[in-house]
Amino acid sequence: MANYKGIVGQEIEIKASNPDNPIIGQVWYNRTDDVLKYKAPQGTGAWSTGGDLNTGRRLGASSGGQSTSLVFGGSAVPTAYKSETESYNGSAWTELNNLNTARDHTTGFGTQTSSIMAGGTSPSPSRHDETESWNGSSWTEVNDLNGGKREMASCGTSSAGLIFGGEQPTPFTAETESWNGTSWSEVADLNTARQRLTGAGTQSAGLAFGGDKDPFPTMTNETEAWNGSSWSEVNDLNTARHGMSGGGSQSSAIGIGGANPSQRFGNTEQYNGTSWSEVADLSNARTIGQGSAEVNTTGIMVGGWGPGFIDKTEEFSTPDGIETVAKE
Question: Are strands 35-39 and 27-30 parallel, antiparallel or unpaired?
Fold first, then answer.
């Protein structure tokens, strides 16, 4: 009878711990745990409860990942624009220094220690062009956008970012602006002008999905990919909606929650670089929250509207597929 080496062409490896990137079907002996392990296909993932925000809010911005998230701005009642900033350590939120300008309908990108916030709205002006930079402890005003706007999406790092879409005084915009760490430059437009869309990726490999387009209210499921110089239409979301949260990369993104004119969604969709697949739903359907992700297998959804201003956090995780061979 053939043994493992005869089937796969090599002996079972002995490892001090699990390998960093095992492939499906790979088998190894974990010397520390004294067990035989293997890589099985990943599951579809599930949502679990995290720590509550100190200030429940909607229409704010976020950056970072599941256990290193930063949330800033937003609104807590119809006329109360927020400047609060909170950071997450994987279990609890901590209040930090405030934004210089309280606002909602804004966007942000970067990490927990180095982020950019741009645009948004407050009583005056109704559409901001101000940009603020976060250094891990405080916010500093930096160079403005080329035009005031709100309800746009973004991606990238604090030194190389991108914002796209949104709403100006008249009507939705397809404009894209690129951030080089110092100033904004207008680059090629989206194919479909829209607001309340969601973004993922980097300055040279971005993703734009969902949102509202004309005639309002028309929810869209359209997805566009950015190659550093232009946008191309790719496969659509399964469910058209606006006000989603999400993030990740151009080849591994996640879209969370959202709404259309008649309902709020808990739907979560994963993008693999080619197509979207529906996976586990949020416990609390919500829209216009503050969510983020680094890849499509982990993510965080924070706050939003459900109805009411939500302070709840949910965390999305996908099993890594590493299984133990049972001992008889």
Answer: antiparallel
